Amino acid sequence: MFHLILFLFFGAICVAGAVNLLVQSHPINSALSLIVVMGSLAAEYLLLGAEFLAAIQVIVYAGAIMVLFLITIMLLNAGKEERSKGSRVATLLGVPGVLIGGVLVAWTLLHRSDMQSVPIGALKGDPKDIARLLFHDFLLPFEVTSVLILIAIMGAVVLASRPEAEAHGARKDEG
Amino acid sequence: MTPTLNPLLWAIPILPLAGAAINGFFGRKASRNAISAVALVFCGAAFAVALWIALHFSSASSPYYFPLAHWIRAGMFSVDFDFYLDQLSLVMLLVVTGVGFLIHIYSVGYMWDDDGYYRFMSYLNLFMFFMLTLVLAKNYLVMFIGWEGVGLASYLLIGFWFTKDSAAAAGKKAFIVNRIGDFGFLIALFLMIKHFGSLDFTHVLAAVRTLPTETAGAGLLTAIGLLLMVGAAGKSAQIPLYVWLPDAMEGPTPVSALIHAATMVTAGVYMVARSSVIFDHAPTAMTVVAIVGTLTALFAATIGIAQTDIKKVLAYSTVSQLGYMFMACGVGAFSAGIFHLMTHAFFKGLLFLAAGSVIHGVGGEQDMRKMGGLRLYMPWTFATMGIATLAIAGIPPFAGFWSKDEILWRAFGASWVYWLSGVITAFITSFYMFRLMYMTFGGDDYRGTVAQEAHGHGGHGHDDHGHGHGEPHESPWVMLGPLVVLALLSVIGGFVGYGNRFEHFLAPVFQGATGIAPETAPESASSTLEYLLMGVSISVAGLGWFLAYLLYSRVPQLPARIAAGLGGLYRTVANKYYIDELYAVLFVKPLIDGSTTILWHGVDQRVIDAAVNDSADAARHVSDNMRHMQSGNLRSYAGWVAAGGALVIAYMVWMGVR
Amino acid sequence: MVPLSYYLVLSGILFACGVLGFLIKRNIITIFMSIELMLNGVNLSFVAFAAHWHALSGQVFVFFVMVVAAAEAAVGLAIIIAVYRTRETLNVDQVNLLKL
Questions:
Q1: Which end of chain C is more exposed for a tag (fewer CB within 10 A), N or C?
Q2: Are B639 and A91 in contact (CB < 8 Å)?
Q3: 8 A C-beta contact, residue B69 and residue B78
Q4: Is A113 on the interface with C (CB under 8 A)?
């Protein structure tokens, strides 16, 4: 019972944040709503017993990735969204498509599947257990993702750096 | 008579083929002398081999045969490249190689100045190859190869001066009309394959001998016989497929002599004679052959009266004489038909070659109204052509008399109608031939001008002989030599038939031929009747001569007045009874129109082209519309993805629900 | 006791919101954030299933998803910055040079 109330509470916050992301016109507001979503999701993870993941969610997602987003928004001085000619396909086909898909999935899940319950904190997500899995069974993916991050860093640096001519020009001004 | 193996047989056709190949591939840059040498040597060699075989021929060891190679082996049915020689083939062989060789020699002189000289000699040799294949074949299919091949050679040679529209058209006409006949021939072959399982002469004819005679008027053998006659009518220019032969005069005169007088057109007669057993067992078919031959002979002769082109007269004369040969075969006198074939080769070949000499001498003119008095300028031509005319008119003791009289005698034995028609035809033949002689050689004044060089004959300018124009001249000896030889043959050629020797020689081939008038029966009939009929035909020939003399020598204004008086009738005959126009309206135009509207516009353009073009258009339209998907707009892409995803989810849900 | 399907429905709602955001929003950065929202929705369903089936590897998978999402976010934002430099706009409708 308690579990359900907590679930519904945090679920509501999640959905509210997601909807707010859609509704807001300034990207900064959307970013902040997303942070709210991240946080409530962390709470959901805790309800499911994934402590380690909840912590990681807050640290990495809400803490690092969203900060990155915020920095970019501020760097680029993104303002309110202007009205622009959207895509007819997106609105006519896509939105109904998504809604239909979502409704179908929800309907299926709620009416057809067995209503197996998940007890609160069912699975203990100890860091120790996760670490054991990570460094034994999933060692290869672990190492590969580290390489992936390295490449991503290099890529981001290269992509975001100023072009050579500008750099020279800038240095000339300075010099 | 035991069949004997004779390896020489296949050499006879191959020699001219080699000559044709050498001249065809290497002749373009070769000298005239080299080309002539090649052509004459190979043709002459074939003739020499034929002579050798003839001299060593013995009826006891005939027929000779030689299997060259396997060809078709299809289960129970097989056809091979086999060669065969019996008495009938021997006669044909000697005629083809002998007359052919003479005409080759003549062509050296006639075509010397032509640009396509090497091509001409190559085609002539090629024709010899196919004709010899036809004559020496052991089965109907190899004969058919020769049959088609001579048709091809005929097309090539008629349209030799292919830059001339009329020549090209004439070549096409000959080939196409021939093909119509070939269609009949092919169906006959199919029937033979189906019912006898073979096309070999010995097998088929032996099988036919065992079948009963179809007196009811219908049946397998009648069908085969009639279809074979269709093929023969096409190849040998009988009604209704004769229309190509007069047009074929567009070709050079040696071609007309060789192909359309002496050899190719006789292939039909040869084929009918070879199949004599089939016709014997199908009286209806045989009657049809006789009727067609008789009608054609009379019909063509009447057209010959009003022709003004010297070669056209001879062309219709050929059709008419071929009619005689078919009439002979149709009454069962196969050997008489072959006899007339042989003598006809001599005198008709001579007539054409002499006509060529005349044309050569007057600088290319072919209209007889522009000739006259040529006997003073071309005595040798005049003499030889005169001999040939006497022969064709049936005046003894020249060759034509013996063979034509034999036919008339045998025709009388079948029915007096055939005989009467033949006699009337003989009268007309004599008339128009002497008319030709008088118009061309008679009188004292030459009505034309020699400076006719530029037109008509493909511009092969053989009029630069260095002497003054305005005078017709005699031809060189390379052309006159063959004329003399043929004239000699026209005189003595008839004597081989004396005392039924020819008939007895060919008897083993036609044994068992009963027909309408059995080979042996007339011998028992009274000889007074025979002499009486002989007298009738001689007097009729004389009458024709006299009439021609009257109209064209004595009172030259008379023909024009008669023609004016007869008006429409004369015009109809002069225009060949408008048969060509009739065919054009009945067959040619509907075919071309149908082909244009239905096949070209309807099928080719609207169905086939449309299918290709429309499928290309459809692809283009589809891609044109699909193009709009690539708008560069990120959100539309996402929209498509979302829609597609929704579809997939819906499908999965539906599958799960089921 | 919360039925599994509730978690999945919540995950589905989050995912749908992410797709909707992708379709509706005009600012590139906002679109990118909707992608992150989608990823989070998926993460939630992974964890829910992990708890349901008592399989810890589900959580490990989420771990990896997060790592990849981080890398992707870094690179993606770098691209956005580069695009902004050339196009001077963050409006996705004006970044449409790749069209036929």
A1: C
A2: yes
A3: no
A4: yes
Q: Which residues of chain C does B627 touch, with a Cβ-Cβ cutoff of 8 Å? A: 100
Between strands B77-85 and B64-74, the pairing is: antiparallel
Distance CA A101, CA A54 (A): 29
What is the CA angle A19-A24-A25, rounded to 5? 145
**Per the CB < 8 Å rule, is C96 touching B642?**
no
Instruction: Note whether C75 contacts A152, CB cutoff 8 Å.
Output: yes
In the block, tokens 């870094």 appear at C74
**Searching chain B, which residue's CA lies closest to the CA of residue A87?**
B636
The closest alpha carbon to B281, from B199, B339, B206, B231, belongs to B206
3-state helix, strand, coil in chain C (%, to 5): 80, 5, 15
CA distances from B101 to B95, B97, B260, B484 (A): 10, 6, 15, 14
Task: Tell me which chain C residues have a C-beta less than 8 angstroms from the C-beta of A134.
Answer: 60, 63
Distance from CA of A175 to the nearest CA of C (A): 24
Q: Look at residue B405 and tell me whether its pLDDT is greater than 90.
A: no
| Tokens describing residue B347 | 């005198």
Chain C neighbours, 3+ Cβ pairs < 8 A: A, B
* Type of residue numbered C9: V
B64-68, long-range: CB < 8 A, 24+ apart: B64/B3, B64/B4, B64/B5, B64/B6, B64/B9, B65/B3, B65/B4, B65/B5, B65/B6, B65/B9, B65/B138, B66/B5, B66/B6, B66/B7, B66/B8, B66/B9, B66/B10, B67/B138, B68/B10
Structure tokens belonging to residue C68: 């990849």
List all chains that touch chain B, counting a touch as 3 or more CB pairs closer than 8 Å. A, C
CB nearest A90 (choices: B639, B646, B649): B639
Q: Is residue A148 predicted with pLDDT exceeding 90?
A: yes
Rg (CA), chain C: 17
Residues C58-99 have pLDDT tens digits of 899 999 999 999 999 999 999 999 888 888 888 887 777 766
Angle between helices C28-53 and A2-23 (to 10 degrees): 160
Average pLDDT, chain A: 83
The two structure tokens encoding residue B349:
């070949």
Please tell me whether residue B386 adopts helix, strand or coil conformation: helix
Q: Which residues of B touch A (CB under 8 A)?
A: 631, 633, 635-636, 638-647, 649-650, 653, 656-657
Cβ count near C100 (within 10 Å) = 10
ipTM for this model? 0.89
Residues of A in contact with B642 (CB under 8 A): 93-95, 97-98, 101
Residues 76-95 on A with a CB inside 8 Å of B are 86-95
With beta carbons less than 8 A apart as the criterion, state whether B146 and B190 touch.
no
Contact B136, B91 (CB under 8 A): no
Chains contacting A with at least 3 CB pairs below 8 Å? B, C
By the CB < 8 Å criterion, does A171 face chain B? no
- Shortest CB distance from B642 goes to which of C19, C31, C97? C19
Task: Check CB contact of A105 with chain B, cutoff 8 Å.
Answer: yes
CA-to-CA dists, residue B209 to A20, B63, B185, B192, B212, angstroms: 109, 18, 20, 14, 8
Q: What is the pLDDT of residues B605-624, one digit of tens each?
A: 888 888 888 899 999 999 98
Contacts of A93 (CB under 8 A, 6+ apart): B639, B640, B642, B643
The residues, any chain, with a CB within 8 Å of residue B270's CB and separated by 6 or more, are: B88, B92, B134, B135, B338, B341
What are the residues facing C3 on neighbouring strands? A117
Three-state secondary structure call for residue B42 = helix
Q: Chain C contact for A52, CB < 8 A?
A: yes
Burial B347-382 (b: 16+ CB within 10 A, else e): bbbbbbbbbbbbbbbbbbbbebeebbebbebbebbb
